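Protein in question reproduced for absentees:

***
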Amino acid sequence: MSNRNLFALAASAALLIATPLAHAEKSAGEHVDDTTIATSTKAALIDSDKVSANHVNVEVYQGHVQLAGFVDSDAEKSAAIAVAKKVDGVTKVVDGMVVLQGHRSMGQTLDDTTIQTKLKTKLADVVGMEKALAINTEVRQGHVLLSGWVSADKYKQQAGEIAQAIDGVKKVHNQIALKP
């Protein structure tokens, strides 16, 4: 079995295990369709020589694909969007990617990990575990990227405020989308 197939299988299993709480209001058919679209999109990103699939997170809600992550260039961002638009079942692509160049030192990586841990803990405490699981967080060079799907704008705003209040955060990129 190729690395691509192993990754797709692992991604499918992770999505099936991790998303029940975050998508409880979806029917079983919608959940399976979205999982299939997410896996197909991630596999297509892996196959692309213009996108670093490790940089791009894929979330799907009712056929709407959200791409989020820190990418190195506008060209990589555009390529990821173009790849996702070609995947069967995708009805819309939501861009949650942020261009942020540069590499982290070991110290920066540790600082980012500390920010990430504090952020996830505070999100779970304030908005509740179910909402916190629906919000993806990434930290790179002190920049916080929030993405995922929530049912109300208040959860998006709360998450942004929580992230901004954490020591060491330089900037918050709140790309959380409202469920269609």
Notes: Residues 1-24 have pLDDT under 50 and may be disordered. The longest strand covers residues 64-71. The CA atoms of residues 142 and 169 lie 5 Å apart.
